[in-house]
Design brief:
By secondary structure, this protein is α/β, with parallel strands linked by helices. The chain contains eight helices and six strands, in the order E-H-E-E-E-H-E-H-H-E-H-H-H-H. It has a single domain, classed as Pyruvate-ferredoxin Oxidoreductase, domain 3, CATH 3.40.920. It has a six-stranded mixed beta sheet with strand order 2-3-1-4-5-6, with helices on both faces. Helix 2 packs across helix 4.
């Protein structure tokens, strides 16, 4: 099996690290070699957080170079545009439709970028309203698991492995909500509700 590279990009507080941890544990449960790296922005909450998960028979490095990622899962639009350079030609780009203004926009030093959705659509992005599906599942905090559900449709891991890892990784009181969120993300892509 060739090495598969997944980049998860968001901002602090969106659950990108938890999502990456779930993915890494699912890959490890499938018997694969897994390498994981995290890059945190200047602030714990609100700063950029990119996590790379690489898995395969043998993975030599957790580092992703531009044009190397098979999948980019972007938790919001600006981070999707910022990390687009990592996606290989023909790679999969899953994007949450949410936008979170970075600090320079919030304090008025710069304008919010215009036309992000159109630019990402040109690159073949698949859009998903993860917050809306997370609320439908029972908690807006489960948007990260919605995105994992969408990602799972493009990976060959058994659904039961995903569910098992989610059950052991999320707080006990949130297991049902997160399993619903995962299923809603999967179904949105399987049924074509992911917007192209």
């Amino acid at each position: 099996m060739a090495v598969t590279t997944v980049v998860l990009a968001g901002v602090g507080g969106q659950g990108t690290i938890l999502a990456a941890d779930v993915l890494a544990k699912v890959a490890a449960a499938a018997g694969l070699d897994v390498k994981l790296s995290e890059v945190h922005g200047m602030a714990q909450r609100g700063g950029s957080v990119d996590t790379t998960v690489r898995f395969g028979e043998q993975v030599h490095s957790p580092i992703v170079d531009p044009g190397m990622a098979d999948h980019l899962v972007a938790f919001e639009l600006i981070e999707a545009a910022r990390c687009l350079r990592f996606v290989r030609p023909g790679g999969r780009l899953l994007v949450n439709t949410r936008i979170i203004d970075p600090l320079p926009v919030l304090i008025g030093d710069t304008e919010r970028p215009e036309g992000l959705e159109g630019a990402l659509e040109t690159e073949g992005a698949v859009f998903l309203d993860a917050e809306q599906l997370a609320c439908q599942a029972g908690s807006p905090k489960s948007a990260n698991i919605v995105l994992l559900g969408a990602l799972s449709t493009g990976l060959e891991f058994d659904r039961g492995q995903w569910e098992s890892v989610i059950e052991e990784r999320v707080p006990a009181a949130t297991v049902e909500v997160n399993l619903r969120a995962f299923e809603l993300g999967r179904q949105a892509c399987i049924e074509g509700e992911c917007m192209r």
